[in-house]
Design a protein that fits this description.
By secondary structure, the chain is an alpha+beta fold. The protein has one domain: Gcn5-related N-acetyltransferase (GNAT) (Aminopeptidase). About 25% of the residues lie in helices and about 35% in strands. It contains 4 helices and 7 strands; from the N terminus they run E-H-H-E-E-E-H-E-H-E-E. A 7-stranded mixed beta sheet has the order 1-2-3-4-5-7-6, sandwiched between helices. A hairpin with a 2-residue loop joins strand 6 and strand 7. Helix 1 packs across helix 2. The two termini are about 30 Å apart.
């Protein structure tokens, strides 16, 4: 497994991975096009890393982007990580965050936020392992598949 900075050519595979989680682990309900990820890859104050197998297939990604375009949030970033189905539990996420978190620091971020479905205990534990703490639960904030969904907010501050 190799962890590399994403290139624009990776945008389609990133979108393909993300779109497998629509309505399962994200509030996004419509497929995202590769152009959305290409914009993040190319944007200032963003960093995107991909995990590639020996065959050069992207099997996961993680990124940091600004939390908000409001100037007062200049130190705050929002992070995201997704692995292709079947690749969880192989330490790929650990390797992605080992690259992403120092890069977020180099970009000037001192506060990172992760929004996670409250029933996703594995992701909550994963983030706790990287020093994130639970800020709170947004009860019923989402509405997916005719069900209300709770989201937890986690943060890492340094």
């Amino acid at each position: 497994m190799t962890i590399l900075p994403a290139k624009t050519a990776d945008a389609q595979r990133i979108a393909d991975i993300f779109n497998q989680y629509l309505g399962i682990a994200t509030m996004v309900l419509e497929p995202r096009p590769a152009a959305d990820y290409q914009a993040i890859i190319e944007a200032e104050n963003c960093a995107v890393f991909v995990a590639k197998e020996a065959a050069e297939e992207t099997v996961g990604f993680a990124y940091v982007k600004p939390y908000s375009d409001r100037g007062g949030y200049v130190l705050a970033g929002e992070i995201t990580i997704f692995l292709a189905p079947g690749y969880q539990g192989q330490r790929i996420g650990l390797h992605l965050y080992d690259e992403l978190l120092p890069t977020a620091h180099q970009l000037g971020y001192r506060h990172l936020t992760a929004k996670i479905w409250a029933n996703n205990g594995a992701s909550i534990r994963f983030h706790e392992g990287f020093g994130f703490r639970m800020v709170g639960t947004q009860v019923g904030i989402g509405f997916v598949g005719r069900k209300r969904i709770d989201t937890v907010i986690m943060e890492r501050v340094w």
